[in-house]
Design brief:
Layout lengths: L8 H12 L2 H10 L18 H19 L4 H5 L9 H20 L7 H6 L24 H21 L2 H35 L6
Helix pairs in contact: 1-8, 3-7, 3-8, 5-7, 5-8
The protein binds fe (ii) ion.
The site of fe (ii) ion has 4 residues, from helix 8.
């Protein structure tokens, strides 16, 4: 299966999961930590210019990423089993970077939370500048997981403030971008689960 044309991680993960009986862990990741108060209706894509509905949708989708990670230890969240699979911590920061770099910096007075994050947590789009080598994301022991959480909180607050305050023309620009960013967030939620399973499949002990 071709690289990028077809990400191999989930397939390998499932094969290895069978061998190591990590199905229980999959179930745990996919169900027990999701915010139980949220229902499928909370994830319907709203009108891009409905400030209140979009703010609620933003909070709900972003919450799922953290909920998925709650069953993982700090060490789990820094592990990278192969170049194509990313640490949970990287996923959490990468999706946050989208809102900072694509929504806030071009359309509000937002300054970078930490300029190095724009490099560390950038993905594949070379035309948008340099990026940290993909295979070395496991070496990003700094920023710490708690700093990444602080980054998320800072950017979440800034996006919600922008949704509340920006003028109508700006809202028409950032609304669709926020929805795009939340679809990216949901894509990375799948990756958080599959990449964590791949990490578990590589360890010698059965899941606990
Ligand atoms: Fe991405």
């Amino acid at each position: 299966m071709a690289r990028r044309g077809g990400y191999e991680g989930p397939l390998r993960c499932l094969e290895q999961a069978q061998a190591l009986q990590v199905q229980e862990t999959r179930t745990l990741l996919m169900t027990s930590n999701l915010p139980c108060a949220l229902r499928s209706a909370d994830f319907l894509v709203p009108c891009a210019t409905d400030r209140v509905a979009l703010a609620k949708y933003f909070v709900n989708v972003r919450a799922v990423s953290l909920a998925l990670a709650t069953s993982l230890s700090t060490e789990d969240q820094g592990a990278q089993s192969e170049p194509e699979a990313n640490p949970t911590k990287w996923h959490l920061a990468h999706t946050t970077r989208f809102f900072e770099a694509v929504v806030l910096m071009p359309y509000t007075s937002c300054v970078p939370f930490d300029p190095s994050y724009l490099l560390f947590f950038k993905s594949y789009y070379e035309s948008l500048g340099r990026r940290h080598p993909e295979a070395q994301r496991r070496l990003l022991t700094r920023p710490s997981l708690s700093e990444v959480h602080r980054y998320r909180e800072h950017i979440d607050a800034a996006v919600l403030k922008a949704l509340d305050k920006v003028d109508w023309d700006t809202l028409k620009s950032i609304g669709p971008l926020i929805i795009l960013g939340l679809q990216l967030e949901q894509q990375h939620q799948e990756r958080i689960a599959t990449d964590a399973l791949l990490v578990f499949s590589c360890k010698p002990l059965p899941p606990t």
